[in-house]
């Protein structure tokens, strides 16, 4: 499974980073970025939670 952040939608709430800092980080401007686009199996549930919790629906799984 892969994950990406839609930079046009992200507003820097930081929910994804709070839920899964192993996969997400925040830029110096406070917007989300993906550290590891190919999600390790042990973090899949946390990433799915982050996807469902993103207020802007900016996280995309493929």
Please explain how this structure is put together.
The chain has 62 residues and is of the alpha+beta class. The protein has a single domain (3-61), classed as 2-Layer Sandwich (Alpha-Beta Plaits). Helices cover 24% and strands 19% of the residues. The protein is built from two helices and four strands. It has helices at 15-19, 44-53, and strands at 3-5, 24-26, 32-34, 59-61. A two-stranded antiparallel ribbon has the order 1-4. It has a two-stranded antiparallel ribbon with strand order 2-3. Strand 2 (24-26) and strand 3 (32-34) form a beta hairpin. The mean pLDDT is 97.
Summarize the structure.
Its cofactor is [3Fe-4S] cluster. The protein is of the alpha+beta class.
Strand content bin: 15-25%
What are the low-pLDDT stretches, counting only 5+ consecutive residues below 50?
none
- Arithmetic mean pLDDT: 97
The coarse overall form would be globular
Provide the succession of SSEs. Answer: EHEEHE
Largest sheet: 2 strands, antiparallel
CATH classification, class level: Alpha Beta
Tell me the radius of gyration: 10 Å
Order of strands, main sheet, comes to 1-4
Number of helices: 2
The figure for the number of domains is: 1
Please bin the fraction of helical residues: 10-25%
CATH architecture: 2-Layer Sandwich
CATH topology: Alpha-Beta Plaits
**How many angstroms separate the termini?**
6 Å
Kindly name the structural category.
alpha+beta
The tally of beta strands, per DSSP, is 4
Q: How is the secondary structure organized here?
A:
Layout: E1 3-5, H1 15-19, E2 24-26, E3 32-34, H2 44-53, E4 59-61
Antiparallel strand pairs: 1-4, 2-3
């Amino acid at each position: 499974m892969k994950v990406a952040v839609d930079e046009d939608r992200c507003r820097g709430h930081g929910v994804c980073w709070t839920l899964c800092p192993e996969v997400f980080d925040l830029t110096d401007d406070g917007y989300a970025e993906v550290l590891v686009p190919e999600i390790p199996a042990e973090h899949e549930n946390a990433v799915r939670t982050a996807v469902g919790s993103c207020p802007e629906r900016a996280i995309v799984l493929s």
